[in-house]
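Why do we care about 3D structure at all? Because function follows from shape, and shape follows, mostly, from sequence. That is the central idea of this module. The next example makes it concrete: a single protein chain, its amino acid sequence, and then its structure expressed as tokens.
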Amino acid sequence: EIDGIKTDIQERQFFALRTQRVRPALGGYSVGNYRITAGTLGVNLWQQDKKIILSNNHVLAASNKGEIGDKILQPGVYDNGQIQTDTIAELLDFEPLKADIENLMDAAIALPQNQGDLDNNIVDIGKPNGFAEIQLGDIVHKSSRTSVYNEGKIIGINAEILVNGFFEGKQTKFVNQIIIDDIREDKGFALPGDSGSALLKEFKVCGLIFAGDNDIG
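And the structure:
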């Protein structure tokens, strides 16, 4: 109590969301198809001689509802992104999500309207350098829209998981997936809006964040 008045202290964590419009855009900031709310720009890659954006299907292709050429906004619609002022790219391709058979990935790519609008770095991490294989116990990290920078430990590989939300009334099966536990123990490894974040082992990409649960993240 303070001066005879009973009080109750409740500890909370607050995060500075990466919802800003940034040009050139880095991995770790808000992005999304104009049909959805917002996710995370995972990483900017080279496809032959052009830079492209890599994120989730459900971020860039609206869970199969998108069409090639759809406008991609940075920031996403939920973060006040608008087609007229914030279009950064167009949907180039995506791996379809399948309701009745096993899925290996939730991924899509987009081609920027202006190559100068993309930065190859990921905020708080730096520039990725290739791709990595992972093992149980590896420490990985990511940078994303909602929970910003975070580190985790791989506690499962080749996992089979069921995910809600892609198809109404159905769970979507994914196989050969990575399970990550937050090692800081102050929040989940991934929160809503972090979908699409690139997962890295040191500076090498080893996956994309696309789903979480209440216990692990």
